[in-house]
Write a structure and sequence with these properties.
By secondary structure, this protein is mainly β. It has a domain of about 150 residues: TolB, C-terminal domain (Neuraminidase). It is built from three helices and 16 strands. The strands form five sheets. A four-stranded antiparallel beta sheet has the order 1-2-3-4. A hairpin with a 5-residue loop joins strand 1 and strand 2.
Length: about 250
């Protein structure tokens, strides 16, 4: 089932969330919630990482973190960290995206695409690097290149069952079967003013909407927003340069 929506349409969304506290090592005594003070006083093995993006595994036992251009794995129970793969290896085989210059092109500052995602098996991760997608084995440190295109894949999402990967290329959505390596376009009419699965400026800037499409829980459908901005006026922004002399 696919949903489309035009700009200026009124819609509501229900957001559900849950929180859970995790305890430190059993040797510290009774379990208790982790506080800000605990994070600031973290041991040297985790120092400096608390403010960086981490991606928890589905089972909550470990997480991956990117630092020094390397993807590393942190095990919560043991407190140990080990390197998985240097991102330079992925960048070296990625297809260099074509540079597309348009007179009024822009990138919203609130775009928040996931560079790393876990698969449901708690072992593999999907990594977006240099415009292409890669499936990385967190145990072996090996990888398989999922896409090889001159157009960068954006906002990639692993399906709940882990068999498919959806993404946006330019202004259209596609889904790729990881087993057969077959790619299936979901939309084909995207243009600079007809955005499929891509939010326009106001939704990112004012409503903090991080994405414009979502997998169904059974991995059989994708719901997405479509924005037709063809009748909206275009306002170019100039950059003023000046120098001051004392």
């Amino acid at each position: 089932m696919k949903h489309s929506m035009r700009p200026h349409a009124l819609f509501t969304a229900a957001v559900f969330f849950s929180t859970a506290a995790f305890a430190g090592p059993e040797s510290t005594g009774a379990r208790r919630p982790v506080t800000i003070d605990d994070i600031l006083a973290a041991p040297a093995t985790l120092a400096g990482r608390a403010t960086r993006a981490i991606t928890w595994s589905p089972d909550g036992k470990r997480f991956v973190i990117t630092e020094h251009n390397t993807l590393s794995l942190y095990d919560v129970k043991s407190g140990k960290t080990r390197e998985i793969i240097a991102l330079a290896r992925l960048e070296s085989v990625a297809v260099k995206p074509k540079v597309q210059e348009t007179p009024f092109d822009w990138t919203n500052r609130n775009i928040s695409e996931k560079a790393v995602q876990w698969f449901p098996d708690n072992r593999h991760v999907l990594v977006a690097s240099a415009g292409d997608l890669f499936e990385v084995d967190a145990e072996k440190g090996t990888f398989e290149q999922v896409t090889r295109t001159e157009e960068a894949e954006h906002d990639a999402k692993v399906s709940p069952d882990g068999h498919l990967v959806a993404f946006r290329r330019m202004h259209d959505l596609s889904v790729l079967d990881l087993q057969s390596k077959q790619e299936h376009p979901l939309t084909t009419n995207g243009t600079a003013t007809l955005l499929n699965g891509q939010a326009d400026w106001v939704y990112l800037e004012e409503l903090a909407l991080e994405t414009a499409y979502w997998w169904s829980p059974d991995s059989r459908s994708i719901a997405y927003l479509q924005f037709d901005t063809s009748r909206e006026p275009l306002f170019p922004h100039g950059v003023a340069r000046y120098s001051s002399h004392s």
